[in-house]
Amino acid sequence: KRGKRPAGAPDKALAKPVTKIGVVGAGLMAQQFALLFVRRLKVPVVITDISQEQIDKGLAYIHGELDKLLAKGKLSQDDANRLKALVSGTTDKADFADADWIIEAIYENLEAKQNVFAEIEKYASDTAVLATNTSSLSVEQIGAKLAHPERLVGFHFFNPVAVMPLIEVVKTPQTDDETLSTAMVVAKKLFKTAVITADTPGFVVNRVLAKVLGEAMHAVDTGTPFEVVNTASAPLGLPMTPFELLELVGLKVGAHVLDTHHAAFPDRFFESRNLHSLAEHGRIFERDGKGKIKGFDKKAVEIV
Ligand code: 3HC
């Protein structure tokens, strides 16, 4: 079995070298995978965002996590210093000129992502591979304004990035073999299992999750008490209840994933007005003394 290629993967000899990484967006997911890139690939990682404050938060997170690894004895002081020195932040995408792997994780809005890639292409080298961490938008549509959409691939991480073992590598009808092969090799260097998925709404994982999370929210939306749904999901054996998972991925991201599925398959997926309402108010769930979720934040919204 050794050396067997994952389903649909092109020859790894086609992979391009990755010697510098550009990360667009410095939010929740981008911070986490920027850290993973620098730890595993040990190459310069440049983070960009429209907000300097967000860049500073991203860098602070990465430094903090490296300090934790140092304290746990998982990194030496020298290695921690070296890795910190490899990560930098800038609001100027011109710094991406010599990056050969550029990955985007801004908020989930198609037009914003299209514009980001159109702009990146002005600065990036002709040979750079471009990747998007979108949760459920069409990767092909995200690349609609690119002159070279054949070098765009989906590279979908799961939260928490350090722990979750999978990456969905999303192939569009245009993605070429060099790009796909580079993505598979990068995933392997991150010690992740990679699967190649088609560019369909929710790919594979979020399609399944949207069903579980959507049904849980729908039960609440239609009158089943929150506590009942939360407790009743325990026998599923998931590491978190559907509501804890929604909180982990972020209520806005969760609502967006449900909306995308509802738009694509209205007869199979629900939208949840309570989830929207919670996301809009930036509210989280109420917790008991042990930190377990016990209900909605009552200040939040009209809960049915
Ligand atoms: N960052 C870094 N490391 C983390 C972490 C985080 N946020 N959360 C947990 N860890 C690490 C801990 O440090 C610990 O590492 P160690 O063994 O080296 O000390 C290890 O993970 C286990 O942590 P805990 O014992 O504290 O926690 P649990 O055993 O309860 O596991 C969990 C925590 C891994 C988050 C588990 O609850 C889980 O798997 N939850 C489900 C997560 C999931 O389904 N994610 C997918 C979401 S979908 C998505 O992201 C896609 C998007 O498009 C919407």
From TrEMBL:
Residues 20-199 form the 3-hydroxyacyl-CoA dehydrogenase NAD binding domain. Residues 202-291 form the 3-hydroxyacyl-CoA dehydrogenase C-terminal domain. In the central section; belongs to the 3-hydroxyacyl-CoA dehydrogenase family. This is 3-hydroxyacyl-CoA dehydrogenase. It comes from Homoserinimonas hongtaonis. The lineage of its organism: Bacteria, Bacillati, Actinomycetota, Actinomycetes, Micrococcales.
